[in-house]
Design a protein that fits this description.
- Pfam families: Castor_Poll_mid.
- It is a multi-pass membrane protein.
- This is Potassium transporter TrkA.
- By secondary structure, this protein is α/β, with parallel strands linked by helices.
- The chain has 21 helices and 22 strands.
- The strands form 5 sheets. A 6-stranded parallel β-sheet has the order 3-2-1-4-5-6, sandwiched between helices. A 6-stranded parallel β-sheet has the order 13-12-11-14-15-16, with helices on both faces. A 4-stranded antiparallel β-sheet has the order 7-10-8-9.
- Helix 3 packs across helix 4, helix 10 packs across helix 13 and helix 13 packs parallel to helix 14.
- The longest helix is centred in the N-terminal third of the chain and has 32 residues.
- The termini are far apart.
Length: about 625
Amino acid sequence: MRRLRYRFDNLVIRGGWAVLGLLVLVALAVSVAGATALVVLVPDAADLPLALWSGLTRTLSPVTVLPEEGPSPLPRGTPVVALTGIMIFSALVGLVKTGLDRRLAGLRKGRSPVVERGHTVVLGWSEQIFLILSELAAGEGRGGTTCVAILADMDRTAMEEAIGGRAAPPRNLRVVCRTGNPTDPADVAIVSPERARAVIVLGSEDTDSDARTIKSLLALDAAGVRPRVQLVAGVRDPDNLVAARLAGGSGALVVDVDEISARVVVQSCLNPGLSVVYGDLLGSGGSEICFRQPCDLVGESFGDALPVLENGSLIGLERRGGIMLNPSRETRIDANDRLVLIMSDGGAKQFRTSAEPNSHEIIASGEHTPTAHRVLILGWNGRGAAIVTEFDRRMPPRSQVRVVSHDSRMAPRMGALAGTLTNVTLTHESGDITRYGTLEALGVGTYDHVLILADDRLSAHVADSRTLLTLLHVREMSRSNGWRHSLVTEMARECDRRLAEVTEVDDLIVPAQVTGLLMIRIAEHPRCHDVFTDLFASGGQEVSIRPAGDYVRLSVPVDYATVVAAARAYGEIAIGYRVDRTARGDGDVVLNPPKSRKVVFEADDAVIVLSGRVARREDGLRPDVEHLEALNHEIT
């Protein structure tokens, strides 16, 4: 008996199908027994097939307890068969209910497979997920519906509530959340990455972020994704780039998140307003980088083609699979080349402008003498060393950087970091930057640039709260004393960025936003990877904001084509301009304006240019006067 019970227990724990099979066997056994007894005891009552059918219907009927009206061949056995049927039917109902409950519980846990094709897969969860959803919705808003499948080690309901709490996804975007480990190949297979259009691997803010990113790339390889699907991932430590690219394969595009964030912070500090330009270039709503056929520009030199296109800013050439940004003026455009353009509408057709550059409105002011800068960094985080190193690369000799923070990680690294700097003198001290007295004693007004960093040891909410407090103190000091310096603040969350805008800060940087936009743009348009690599790489091309008075005459209307020609005299490419917002209410950053547009620049306005690190005018570069004279001769 014990052995029989042991076998029964093993059969039951196998699942619903085993129990269902047992119930079917019991029903058949009872039906066969009843039919046999009927045939044996009452030979004239019915034949065997009819008896089997009668026994089976009575066994499976939950309501047949009393014998049927009229003569019955086995009236005394009918209640026994009917009671057996009730037990079997009750067990079947319980089995179905248990199966439905398990299925619904599985759906709530988010473990069901995603059956999609051409969707975007996101592995991991961070603040960047909301930016990714909004950008994908904006990019696909021009037509069709897109699906985003998110796999994260979180409860599915919690993910859906977080997404709905920020902003309800638009109709053209379907978001599918699944719970699982992004580093487990079995869990990764839930979101069907092998049929996706692109896979984005998100990192986290802890120290194990890169390790999990690399494991996720290996899990994708185990799931059979590469090389058919575009993979995009981000790592925080440059030393892990080689390992991440090896794990992702030759088709994976790995972004150095912290290095790019440090460069954007430093560039924005030296060129206030630059984050808006990057947001426009990387976002879906404004100007974007695209590739077009050269058409009637074949045979022309790159320098002559710059002011020609009315609705596109030519910034480089794609030649034999490689990208050349800002090539030499004499470079001839070949029929096999592709133009690298900044255009407001990626589908617009480029055409020639009717405007011609006017050399009489161009100012060739000659050599610019580099001047040393003084930078005050308030706060510290994991990107601090990269930020100081980037300041050293970009600032002239005899510049100074002073770091003030209460971060215990800062002091041990300062000695070794100072020994690697060539242009900057680095000093540091400990202090609570959220206290007004500490900031007042620093002499904030004596610095050219003030940079406030978010503390990554704290939660994003707490870090931004402390950053906002420091920002308000500095802004009040500057306003009451009339200090003139650039003030750039790093925020951890995009939602807190909107709170800081009321403080009239020169620039607000959300590193996660910049790197998130970059990863989305690369995932959607892989050909742009080399363009952005050059823009964000040390020693490559860079976007700068220069005084408009360095290019054209002020207070007089000039065609934008003239601005483009003036920038080319310095070896630069003008891609837009910025009107000072404090002086005029219509001020804003304008990228890729029409070449025929008339612009009146004032003293505080600026031109946005693309220039090479070797051709920076802060290093003493003189304008190409011969180019200006040739241009003047052609117009004359």
